[in-house]
Design goal:
This protein is an alpha+beta fold. The chain has a 5-stranded mixed β-sheet with strand order 2-10-9-5-6, with no helix packed on it. The longest helix has 38 residues, at 621-658. Residues 1-17 form the signal peptide.
Length: 997
């Protein structure tokens, strides 16, 4: 057998032509040699020396004969091939050497670094004044030289132009500003300013925009017309919103879209006003367009193709529409950040006041950032593909469902040999802590009130996905259904988020993140104080999270959601009354694995809170709660960055793109980028078609593993089929799905998503593609360019990335041109980087986000002063394995790192007792002279007296020992707490319903 293996290996080496090289090796050769250069005192200087060889050579740097070693001023990256010196000092001037050496030889390159002579900036390429037609692209350039190299900034009408979230695109080196579609509002004086440490220079240019058309429009649109249109737009949006509310009250949940919309609408109520203002504004623009077109005979050259009519309105009319819609004033309640006793220690629920200079950075209910300017068909708000038949690079964009069917969906699965399914589950848990994009306010069109599931037309907010005549969803669906998948656009927000009055005017459509951007445990605690209060046990004053029932191990489940019309009932039995669970994120019920994660973190909160109460008898419930919330947020940060990201993103990519933590940077904006919300959906390619469920011997439980489509919104299965333990074992003891170019997303998510009785299921990949277009994300190649990767202009060039010829041919058949490939589709098809699950484009976008999340978080757990050094040492001990052990019902062995998979053997598992534990004694606070010191017995007596009575979910007070029955639970008051179990008669479910076969 061994001989056969050796022979096969030699044969493979022979056919690849590498046998000799494998034995002989290769001496070092420079691929990039440093040259003489100059550096400015106090500035940063970067030196590069690259070499290749076999084995890979080691690189050594010397300055004036002395070996350079890493320090606070000398930083090495990319296997020592890059040296960064900051700040550069006079002592650093002199001769440098770069040596590359392996076992076959060594080479050396010598060069000098001199002290640069300072020079004031000089403008060498001044911007030129221009005259543009309406809708035309305009580019202004500015070049400057000086020592140190001057920084260039751009100004419009005396106001500095921001780099992000505006309609203007400023190049990476700041030498060019591009106005994609010039409007009357862009006419004015532009200035570039070059500045360094010893001076500055500036130059100006004037942009004029032809006003022939706008002059005609000014005669048609009057102030009275604007007021009438604003009122009509408000009425249209309010009517559609009211129709959706009424439908949600009356409609039976008999299809997946009803379920999905009702769930999301409940979470959307708190952000309705924020999104409604933008919807009213956009509806006003649509009405104005119709009004103008009736009064004008436009020739082909009057208005550039797909230019929004917002572009031709006078500024006063734009301001009127902003005021009438609510966009002008803004609806976010601002925290004045004055309570520094609180803000220095704890996070606000909505993320405000983390950055004290920019209090809304990372806050909830704010617009998403953009890495690139958006791509809308009309430059304002309509997605690409909105206008049927429109060509891009000579080809129409493919139908999102067709891309999913032909390219993405797979029935074949290959397991990952090294990583466990917990990689996917932790990723979803983290994603739900960071992002939740506000959905459309309504399922009715603003134009004529048509219900989105009763039309296949593109009528805001309806952007449905067409189904072809032979689509299985049509063949297997109910008779008479429309040939499309219902899809509503995500909601929008007003303004660009900039402080300047000029740039606050509404430009392109942006989407809103309902959650805080920070990794702060908001999935556990909510992102608003009112949400958190609903989750807390306020009666005991022990800082606990509330619960309704417990497991056989006397450990709590999530509380039931009681106060809204959300319903997670599956069609096992029409009489089954089990409701959804309540958690900090309303998506906690989405699937059973996610429910189990929320459950163990509720238990972990209460475990930590109980210990803090024992250690700090003088703390009240609010202090215990906030300290526990702070600790669990730190746990999530540690696990994500130390354990999960190095395996999800890859250790190499993590080191190069994120790197070591160097402290809080108040100039880093941590807000979630629009691109990140799509890129992180790469994880959909990692999902198995079944959820594994193992007993304590790691054998399938008697109910068996569960197909994914049966695990959606099924809290009753968690309660009746073994609790959280089988699901948790199924996550850490089963392999992750491997992402291959021909095996992308399992067909449980393309053909059975949210499948219910007599319903047509949804298609997750098709929704991902449509969502990227809805958000105005540029094409895949634009992001390769953004990430400094090669851009493919032909299919032949793209063959270097897509090695599977069948996949490449399908791409060509669908998209016609490489420049048309959707961002999400291109990203999931890339070959993974070394030790990563993803390719370079998604790695670039995801790493950008996680670096900003960490570096721009003032309350990051490793930042000085957030925790003591002893506390940080304890947080570093935290692992998912220990959290599972301490909060599962009866889990006693597990692998130390739950993200790694060791096959079917349990020999690598350790006993739970052998795993490191966080020592919470480091959070024991001694009283100062101002404390009212109570002895332990006195304090405990005071608390226990307060807790001898219980209050149930209906507000009824019960005495110690009382028992009572609810509709589906049996409860008892013991030691001041309500302990409940689900009655067995509520869990009798028909496992063989016809819709599940």
């Amino acid at each position: 057998m061994i001989g056969l293996f050796v022979s096969s290996l030699l044969f493979l080496q022979c056919i690849s032509g590498q046998v000799l090289r494998a034995h002989i090796g290769k001496q070092p050769v420079f691929t990039y040699q440093p040259k003489d250069t100059s550096a400015v005192e106090g500035e940063a200087v970067e030196l590069t020396c690259e070499a290749e060889g076999d084995p890979r050579p080691t690189i050594l740097w010397l300055n004036n004969g002395r070996t350079i070693v890493p320090s606070s001023r000398y930083e090495f990256t990319k296997a020592n091939s890059k040296l960064r010196i900051y700040p550069f000092q006079v002592d650093d001037v002199g001769s440098y050497s770069c040596k590359a050496e392996n076992i076959h030889g060594k080479i050396e390159q010598n060069f000098k670094v001199n002290l640069a002579q300072l020079e004031k900036p000089i403008i060498v390429d001044a911007p030129m004044s221009k005259k543009a037609n309406l809708g035309e692209q305009v580019a202004l350039r500015c070049g400057a030289k000086g020592v140190p190299k001057p920084e260039i900034s751009w100004y419009f009408e005396g106001i500095r132009m921001p780099r992000r979230n505006t309609k203007y695109q400023i190049s990476d080196d700041d030498s060019e500003v591009v106005i994609e579609k010039a409007t009357r509002h862009d006419a004015g004086v532009y200035a570039c300013r070059a500045k360094n440490s010893i001076g500055f220079a500036s130059a100006e240019a004037t942009l004029s925009v032809d006003t022939t058309l706008t002059d005609k429009i000014d005669k048609i649109i009057t102030n009275d017309t604007i007021n009438q249109i604003a009122k009509q737009a408000t009425d249209n949006v309010n009517r559609a919103l009211a129709s959706t509310k009424e439908a949600n009250k009356k409609d039976k949940i008999d299809d997946p879209e009803n379920l999905r919309q009702l769930f999301r609408f409940a979470a959307n109520l708190k952000t309705v006003d924020l999104g409604k203002a933008r919807e009213i504004y956009e509806e006003s623009i649509r009405l104005i367009q119709g009004h103008i077109e009736k009064g004008l005979n436009l020739t082909q050259n009057n208005l550039a193709p797909n230019v929004s009519y917002e572009a031709v309105l006078p500024v006063p009319y734009i301001q009127t529409l902003m005021e009438k819609s609510g966009c002008q004033t803004g609806l976010v309640i601002l925290d004045d950040c004055s309570n520094m006793c609180f803000h220095n220690k704890y996070r606000t629920y909505d993320g405000q006041c983390n950055n004290l200079e920019h209090p809304l950075w990372g806050a909830a209910q704010m617009g998403l950032l953009r890495l690139l300017p958006p791509r809308y068909e009309n430059g304002f708000n309509t997605p690409v593909g909105w206008q049927k038949g429109r060509l891009y690079n000579g080809f129409p964009l493919p139908n999102a469902r067709k891309v999913s069917q032909m390219l993405v969906s797979t029935s074949e699965i290959t397991p990952n040999p090294h990583l466990s399914a917990m990689i996917m589950q932790w990723g979803q848990f983290v994603d739900h802590d960071l992002t939740l994009t506000a959905t459309a306010l309504t399922r009715h069109s603003y134009n004529d009130g048509a219900f989105c599931n009763r039309t296949c037309e593109n009528l805001d907010p309806c952007f449905n996905i067409q189904l072809e005549s032979d689509d299985p969803k049509l063949k297997n669906g109910p008779p008479g259904r429309l040939p499309c998948l219902e899809f509503e656009r995500n909601g929008a927000v007003c303004g660009s988020g900039e402080t300047s009055v000029i740039f606050q005017r509404v430009t392109y459509r942006d989407q809103m993140n309902i959650l805080t951007s920070f990794l702060d445990g908001s999935a556990i605690y909510g992102n608003l104080e009112v949400q958190s209060l609903e989750l807390r046990d306020l009666y005991s004053d022990h800082g606990l999270l509330r619960f309704d029932i417990v497991s056989e191990a006397q450990k709590p489940y999530l509380p039931f959601e009681k106060d809204s019309e959300m319903d997670c009932r599956r069609n096992f039995s029409e009489e089954n009354p089990i409701r959804c669970f309540l958690a900090g994120d309303f998506r906690a019920n989405e699937q059973l694995g996610l429910m189990s994660m929320h459950t163990i973190f509720l238990r972990e909160h209460n475990r930590v809170a109980a210990k803090l109460l024992e250690l700090n008898t003088n703390w009240d419930g609010e202090t215990i709660f906030q300290e526990t919330r702070k600790i669990l947020g730190a746990m999530m940060q540690k696990i994500t960055y130390d354990d999960w990201l190095p395996r999800f993103l890859g250790q190499t990519a993590f080191n190069e793109l994120i790197g070591e933590y160097k402290g809080y940077d108040p100039n880093t904006n941590p807000s979630i980028s629009n691109e990140f919300t799509i890129a992180l959906r790469f994880a959909h390619t990692l999902i198995n078609p079944v959820l594994f469920r193992f007993d304590k011997d790691f054998k399938p439980i008697k109910e068996g593993h569960i197909p994914l489509h049966k695990a959606f919104f099924a809290p009753e299965r968690l309660l009746s089929e073994g609790g959280v333990d089988p699901l948790l074992r199924g996550l850490f003891a089963a392999p992750l799905k491997l992402t291959l170019q021909h095996q992308l997303v399992n067909n449980e998510l393309t053909e059975k998503l949210f499948n219910r009785y007599h319903a047509v299921a949804l298609d997750l990949p098709a929704f991902n593609i449509q969502r990227g277009r809805d958000h105005g994300l540029p094409a895949y190649m634009e992001y390769r360019k953004f990430c400094n990767l090669s851009v493919f202009n032909t299919w032949e060039e793209m063959a270097s990335e897509i090695r599977n010829q069948s996949v490449l041919m399908k791409l060509k058949q669908l998209y016609g041109h490489p420049g048309n490939i959707d961002f999400w589709v291109g990203g999931i098809l890339e070959r993974p980087l070394s030790d990563s699950l993803m390719g370079p484009t998604f790695a670039c976008v995801i790493a950008d986000q996680f670096k900003r999340l960490r570096d721009g978080d003032r309350l990051w757990y490793e930042n000085d002063g957030v925790f003591t050094k002893l506390q940080v040492q304890q947080i570093k001990k935290v692992s998912v394995a220990k959290i599972v052990c301490q909060n599962g019902d009866n889990i006693d062995k597990i692998q130390r790192n739950v993200f790694e998979y060791y096959g079917n053997s349990t020999s690598f598992y350790e006993t739970c007792d052998s795993l490191p534990s966080i020592n919470l004694n480091m959070w024991s606070h001694c009283c100062d002279n101002s404390c009212n010191i109570l002895g332990p017995n006195e304090s405990r007596k005071k608390r226990s007296l307060k807790s001898q009575k219980c209050t149930d979910g209906n507000g009824v007070i019960h005495q110690e020992g009382d028992q009572w029955d609810n509709e589906c639970t049996q409860c008892k008051c013991m030691e001041g707490k309500v302990w409940c179990h689900v009655r067995k008669d509520c869990l009798n479910m028909d496992e063989d319903d016809s819709d599940e076969n």
